[in-house]
Amino acid sequence: MSSEKNDSKGWQSRKSLPECLEYMFENRLSSDVTFLVGEGQKEVKAHKYLYTDKVDLDADNVTSLLVAANKYEIDGLSDHCTAYLEAGMTTDNACLLLEKAHMYGQKELYKKCMKMILDNPEESLNSQSFVQICKECLEKIVDSDKLALKEEIVFESVMRWADAECKRCELEPSDENRRQVVGKVLYAIRFPLLEKEYFDEQVLTKDLLVESEIASVVKKQYKVVDLEKCMFKPYKRLINTTKVIRFESDPKCKWPYNGQPDAISFAVSDEMFLHGIIIYGSFETDCTYKVKLDVFHAGYLLHNQHIEVDTKPEQTTYNMEILPPLKLEAGVRYVAVMHIEGDPSYWGDRGKNEIIVGETQVQFHSTTRSKNGTDKNKGQFPGLLLSHA
């Protein structure tokens, strides 16, 4: 027998399982899957990952491998590709990676890309990759309340994207075509926040808005229309909210949930926005709360939402965002009603009836809608997230 034949028959001798699998990959023994990746259609044997949990990733093959991993439900390989992309994320490529995450259904990568973009908005929107994203990703970015940019920059960025999209669609970059390709994203631009002079010179001189839209913005600028009736969002992005905490005591245990609602009434002395409700978490075990929140004024339902909140005993409170924020009129009583399904939670007492925020008074009152023990002195609703209008 030749040594080559001996090697081919006895290759498993004195090898560990990982070494055997590595040998199978290197010598293409029993290969059952081959990926063709990159522009050069380079062959990558599946054994490299399936049998050894190793893969050589680079900028040329990572996207193709991610597609293949998702198609064939190879979760580990998908995780490796996602981790590689996350490690190389910058403000220059965050929008490009957001688009890839959107295309391939990578929810965690998508969230991390959005965080990078919203944490570094000006650099990200000025990047070349921004104008390459799809309309759906564009809307997610532009519509975000956490996009901390002057609205003039947002407007100009959307127009840059529109020009690029016109080019991709082989259209002239006219105002009519810009509006057409932008579509409903136009309503994510907060035109009422533009400086009046900028609006007059950069928007009114173009055919981007129809007469009714222009009238809505102008009326808002001159404060002759209610915020809720404006056709475009009139409130600022990334407003510095104030946590208004109503309990003076440390959180206590334990508050049971029996299917009955907890509720609190509150009022403000000046116009404000309600951005969220602060709720308590589980005091004993990890628990996912199912929360139903209703906000009423004079018996009318102003806001309703259902949300699941993952809570841990080491964290006592959680912010439940209200989007879009609710405008609170001065001197008007509102009632927040909350149904929670889950384990017993923390609770507070020694409630303060009045708290001063700047020069604004925030008052808390008991309400007959509360059936589970919460009132102005104790219970749930440890605080509100507010900002001045």
TrEMBL record:
It holds the Pfam family PHR. Residues 95-204 form the BACK domain. InterPro entries: BACK, BTB/POZ_dom, PHR, PHR_sf, SKP1/BTB/POZ_sf. Gene3D superfamilies: 1.25.40.420, PHR domain (2.60.120.820), Potassium Channel Kv1.1, Chain A (3.30.710.10). It comes from the Eukaryota. The keyword rRNA-binding does not apply. The keyword Hydrolase does not apply. It is found in: Cytoplasm. Keywords: Cytoplasm. Residues 366-389 are annotated as: Disordered. This is BACK domain-containing protein. It comes from Tegillarca granosa.
